[in-house]
């Protein structure tokens, strides 16, 4: 017979209502490039490189695990904008393919670059709000 050496992991972590974090506020702050905790400090120190910590409140950002999720989300968002427009224009007007590519490709590239940092910030804000990964101060693995 074996016994568990520690408490089972429960997700989401059980926390008192006073310790719960506002998910939408944290995601909006992250979307704007601000610290999900205080909303004032900067979350990024480069285009997609998060700062080690908030320069205002000291919130540690090194525990985030956004990984490839922001890129997947940007593909989904931009794809849901570009593809219906392209299909509709092709169906109704059928302009030359060269003209369509000259518009859609730069738009897709620009929209993707413009959305990547805000979406990554929102993902980090989401992880912070749910105390995921390195934002869980009760996790003994960190
Ligand atoms: Zn902060």
From TrEMBL:
It comes from the Bacteria. Keywords: Membrane, Transmembrane, Transmembrane helix. The chain crosses the membrane at residues 69-89, 101-123. This is DUF983 domain-containing protein. It comes from Rhodopseudomonas palustris (strain ATCC BAA-98 / CGA009).
């Amino acid at each position: 017979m074996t016994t568990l050496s520690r408490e089972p992991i429960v997700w989401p972590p059980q926390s008192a209502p006073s310790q719960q974090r506002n998910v939408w506020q944290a995601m909006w702050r992250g979307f704007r490039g601000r610290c999900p905790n205080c909303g004032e400090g900067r979350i990024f120190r480069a285009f997609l490189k998060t700062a080690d910590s908030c320069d205002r409140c000291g919130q540690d950002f090194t525990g985030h695990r956004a990984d490839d999720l922001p890129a997947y989300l940007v593909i989904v968002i931009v794809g849901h904008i570009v593809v219906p427009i392209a299909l509709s224009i092709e169906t109704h007007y059928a302009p030359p393919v060269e003209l369509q590519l000259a518009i859609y490709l730069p738009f897709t590239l620009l929209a993707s670059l413009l959305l990547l940092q805000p979406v990554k910030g929102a993902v980090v804000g989401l992880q912070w709000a749910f105390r995921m990964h390195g934002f869980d101060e009760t996790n003994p693995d960190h």
